[in-house]
Amino acid sequence: YLNIKGHLLFGKNFKIYKEDELLLFKLCNYFIQDHYSCSQMGIDTNKGLLLSGPVGCGKTSLMKLLLHLAPHKTNYELIPSRNIVFNFNAKGYDALEKYNQAQDYCFDDLGVEPTGIHYAKECNVMGEILLSRYDLFCHPERSRRVLTHITTNLNAQEIEKRYGNRVRSRMRAMFNLISFDENSIDKRN
């Protein structure tokens, strides 16, 4: 199913690589909410995903593809982090209000976005959003937790350097870390 859907979404060159099958198995179990299998793999189905790996390994494609695996259980909007910062630069802090809502999001390519600047005032836009998302995660307004997912090329130390130790600490509580092998090939070639 994922191969066929991948071809429909991304074209005839889409391929699931053998070396990614275990990672894909973990992601599929998470998205279908197989609580038993996830617990066996150390995945908490009440947390979001932080999918990390080298450039071009397929993080964004998988997060787009897996939306279709169990649409009755999975519903998030995938937004490039760069676009959020560009929107902030144009509209200011009002642009951040959208992310304080009880909707699930996947922030794509965390760490490549520029620093936000609105009327000469700098803001670590994604850091502020992640702090707000943590509050939503810990104190859901409704009966279900608000989930955030992230794709990134950064490792834990780079995340802390860019967003600070407060954000990194909260991210530990919010996310399951699932990583591609650091030697994963660039699949865009």
List keywords for this structure.
alpha/beta, 40% helix
Can you give a write-up of this model?
Strands 2-3-6-1-7 form a five-stranded parallel beta sheet, sandwiched between helices. A two-stranded antiparallel ribbon has the order 4-5. The chain has helices at residues 2-10, 21-31, 35-40, 59-65, 81-91, 125-138, 156-163, 165-174, and strands at residues 48-52, 77-80, 105-110, 116-118, 121-123, 148-152, 175-179. It starts with a helix and ends in a 10-residue tail after the last strand. The chain has 189 residues and is an alpha/beta fold. α6 (125-138) packs across α8 and α7 packs across α8 (165-174). The chain contains eight helices and seven strands, in the order αααβαβαβββαβααβ.
